[in-house]
Amino acid sequence: MIIYNVTTHVNHTIHEAWLTWMKQIHIPEVMQTKCFIKFQMIRMLEVDETEGATYAVQYYAESKADYNRYIELYAPAFRQSILEKWGNKIIAFRSLMDVVH
To answer: Could you tell me which Pfam families the record lists for this protein (predicted)?
Structure first.
């Protein structure tokens, strides 16, 4: 199982609008790609929230091939639309993890 983790720091000025957009639009669109089988969204605790809140969304893929398909076919357009919508009001970084039992 592969986890594609996107951690995002969100400026207070757009926090509520961004959170609604993530829940109602962006995450459903990512899941519609069928590259991931489930997700979870978490809010980071014990971090500096002076300028905003920090969230992580973890998307679970059954294989590296499913993740690669997402990155190749869908990620560029999603990233561009996010940049156009939110600009410098968010800062995101991505990481890839392998579940070890």
So the answer is: DUF4286
Q: Is 7 helix (H, G, I), strand (E, B) or coil?
A: strand
* Residues in the chain, pLDDT under 70: none
Confirm if 56 and 4 have CB atoms less than 8 A apart.
no
CATH number for the domain formed by residue range(s) 2-96: 3.30.70.100
Phi, psi of 37 (to 5 degrees): -100, -20
38: alpha, beta or left? (left if phi > 0; alpha if psi -120 to 50): beta
What are 16's two structure tokens? 């509520």
R_g over Cα of the chain: 14
Q: Quote the pTM value.
A: 0.93
pLDDT in tens, 14-33: 999 999 999 999 999 999 99
Q: Hey, what amino acid is at 23? A: K
Tokens describing residue 71: 């990155």
> 53 by DSSP, 3-state: which?
strand
